[in-house]
Amino acid sequence: MTSAAGQNRSSRIAGFHKKTPRERLDLVAAFAGLDETAVAHLANMGNLDPALADKLIENVIGTMNVPVGVATNMKIDGEDVLVPMATEESSVVAAVCNAGRQNYETGFSTSVSGNLMIAQVQAVEVRDPAAARLRILERRDEIKAACDACDPVLVSLGGGFRDLEVRLLDTPSGTMVITHLIVDTRDAMGANAVNTMAEKLAPAIAGWAQGRVYLRILSNLSDRRLARAHAVWRTADIGGEQVRDGIVSAYQFAAADPYRAATHNKGIMNGISAVVLATGNDTRAVEAGAHAYAARSGRYTSLTTYEVNADGDLSAAIELPLAVGLIGGATKVHPTARASLAILGVSTAERLARIIAAVGLAQNFSALKALATTGIQKGHMALHAQNIAMMAGAVGEEVDKVARILVERASVRMDVAAKVLEEVRGG
Ligand code: MEV
Asked: What is the pLDDT of residues 208-256, one digit of tens each?
């Protein structure tokens, strides 16, 4: 993809941000020595309007297309749902479809704890932290009024300030006084709303604390915005008691061991992040919240639980913070996000969070079932073989042919794929 890079390679490019995407691309191409194919590829922005891309982030030169697949078989709170998932990883969409197929009769039941976001205001250099805490708590009504005045639209939609918390935090530079503004952000993810409130309140909080305020920002550990899903898989439908017990044992392994829990939760996030991305929500915010919640006891552990119920079937549950919205950020302006929300048919952020929680559980069930039985490589290899076949140059029908032969020969490697492609082409 590259030819000789330009001679004078300086990353200090005057006025780069003021240029058009195409002008920037030409500069980057000269810097990196990109060939025509790479430049033409980046210049093709697919189904995202270059003008919109250029507004969403800075210094745009192209877009990164990720496939959007749809998970079928999902019944959530008695309603059938088709779930759009944006991911580059094979098997992720299939895993959700498979889990949903195996419990379609009963499906997933979900709930949420509310739409409450937390904004933190950090006060330092406070002489009397315990008294400062109470001075701030005494101003609750004033704080509520100031927060609500920041966002009358949110208040008119039933949201706004809900609660106040002040925590004392021991640090190497003394006790910090940390104020939490707890705000119902309704159908917005709410970062902008609560950050505005925190910045507005900061000078007053510094005054009441008689200290200095530094940070004023939301917490991504949105543990007052939890989404939950639970489901039962009948033992007879999943291959019998040994499979069921293998899944329970896999969960217990993750519950007891952070090394395993990280991988277990990564699998959960394969499903969750894919829906979060497809709907234009903030994957990093959700991921940070999920992992922080998984460590809330002081030891990082599983986000799901599995047990055998009174009927001898597999009972599974998930609970995690899910700060997602239907308005704000890319959710409203990105056409793929809008279409994804239309496919989901959701009209509230709560419903979206509930669906995402169910997808996380479905994803995890399928991963554990595969791991506790055949292992995941069999399924993965079939799809991986297709990628290898394409990398070796296979096109059209050749891709499936080469991939099948690679799997049959149990040798999914580039060098083998190149030879197999020659055989296929040679007839
Ligand atoms: C791979 O992306 C995800 C898994 O590793 C999850 C797990 O191990 O539970 C299969």
From this structure: 999 999 999 999 999 999 999 999 999 999 999 999 999 999 999 999 9
* Statement: the pTM of the whole predicted model exceeds 0.90: yes
- For residue 105, count CB atoms less than 10 angstroms from its CB and return exposed for 0-12, middle for 13-18, buried for 19 or more: exposed
Beta strand residue intervals within 172-313, DSSP E: 174-184, 212-218, 226-233, 304-308
Phi-psi region of 202 (alpha: psi -120 to 50; beta: other; left: phi over 0): alpha
| Contact 375 CB / ligand 1 (< 6 Å) | no
376 has pLDDT over 90: no
The response to whether residue 377 sits with its C-beta less than 6 Å from ligand 1 reads: no
Q: What spatial distance separates the first Cα and last Cα of the chain, rounded to whole Å?
A: 31
DSSP designation for 80: E
Q: Could you identify the residue written with the tokens 């780069």? A: 16
Residues taking part in catalysis: 89, 266, 282, 380
Q: What is the CA(166)–ligand 1 centre distance, in A?
A: 39
